[in-house]
Amino acid sequence: MGDPVYLDYNATAPIRPEVIDAVAGAMTEPGNPSSVHGFGRAARRIVEDAREKVAALIGADPAGVVFTSGGTEANDLAIQGSRPVRIAVSAVEHPAVLAAAEAAAKVPVGGDGVSDLAALRTLLEDWRGAAPDDRLLVSLMLANNETGVLQPVREAAEIARELDAVIHTDAVQATGKVAVDLTTLGVDMVSLSAHKIGGPNGIGALVLRDGVEVAARIRGGGQERGRRGGTENVAAIAGFGVAADLAGGELDAFTGLAALRDGLERRLLDEVPGLTIFGRGSPRLPNTSCIAMPGVAADTQLISFDTEGFAISAGSACSSGKVATSPVLDAMGATPEAAGGTIRVSLGLHNTAEHVEAFAAAWLALCRRVGACGARAA
Ligand code: PLP
After folding, report:
1. From ligand 1's centre to the CA of 74, what distance in Å?
2. pTM greater than the 0.70 cutoff
3. Is 96 in the pocket of ligand 1 (CB under 6 A)?
């Protein structure tokens, strides 16, 4: 077996060498960014330089960037920090949003994985009609982590604006993979995470539109303009800045990954014409493919592919490594058999046509071995 092939970029992207250099460099700065002396000012410069780079990635004002411990905390700050009376989320949000918005109403998605905006409008109109002054919040992810399906966030933002609701988008999976612009989207808040774009784990940001505020969830020394207490993680922030800068310059190359991904899907579909690939007909991230091998448990597939040197993921195992039936696929109306046998392949810029071809061969071989692919592939 050759080197293992990493096909799990939606779980995390390998850290960039330039990020490692930036992190290491920042770690040798002894200052606290809140200190007034020269050491402190040097650390502050690192943080503010990174803030500008992160803001630039999504066309935001640096003053709106609140550094957090990652996408999970950014989602929590957006949702809980907005102090909403009522919350609407899509049925396919990441657990970080669902946990922060436990009492939320779920907006359904179709079989294509796209949120039903008519249902969102009806919900907001009902709420607004019943309580004209309530603070309403919509949280709609930009790209789904399991299927890659892009959600109609710009259109949802128009509806939210009409009905005087605040709108947040979890753009953790979208940034660096497709163009994301806070103003074009028309949203109030955007969640980002560094490790999905080749930055360090454990650092992210909530980015606020001008004039939008959140109440701090972590209070302390008033850092991050009072929105998130605690001495800044200068080294991780420095790495995030470099990753954001580089990711912004690679968007075209990332778009090109669709050719590799589509090649993989065509190869499998040629052999298995009835194959289910979730979200295939919808606007999707260029790197993601969510492939069902019905009746073959996703964890069995994971182990088999891992043994053969391919790192992929079960749809819902984004964070914990646990494999359970995916609520995202359930919401899309997948049968338990298909949902339980679905894996996620997510490509990155290190992947080649050879990687994809080798994985396709391994997938087809497994499918034949277990008799899951019908006569044509047998
Ligand atoms: N939101 C989405 C859509 C994700 O895919 C992830 C990834 O795990 C997160 C939020 C959580 O981000 P983090 O790992 O930085 O906490």
Report:
1. 9
2. yes
3. yes
Dihedral, 97, 288, 313, 8 alpha carbons, nearest 10: -100
Distance spanning both ends of the chain, measured CA to CA: 25
Counting from 1 in the atom list of ligand 1, the atom nearest the Cα of 10 is 5
Of residues 145, 89, 147, 142, the one with CA closest to residue 119: 89
Residues whose CB falls within 8 Å of the CB of residue 69, separated by 6 or more in sequence, listed in order: 202, 203, 204, 233
pLDDT tens across 242-257, in order?
Answer: 999 999 999 999 999 9
Pocket test for ligand 1, best of 12, 15, 69, 72 (most atoms within 8 A of CB): 72
Q: Which residues are catalytic?
A: 318
Give me ligand 1 centre to Cα 193, in Å: 7
CB atoms < 10 A from the CB of 86, how many?
Answer: 20
* Nearest Cα to Cα of residue 296 among 356, 366, 374, 377: 366
Task: Decide whether any atom of ligand 1 lies within 6 Å of the 148 Cβ.
Answer: no
Instruction: Report the alpha-carbon distance of residue 217 to residue 92 in Å, rounded.
Output: 25
Per-residue pLDDT reduced to its tens digit, 44-96: 999 999 999 999 999 999 999 999 999 999 999 999 999 999 999 999 999 99
Cα(2) to ligand 1 centroid in Å equals 30
Closest CA to 292 of 188, 176, 147: 147
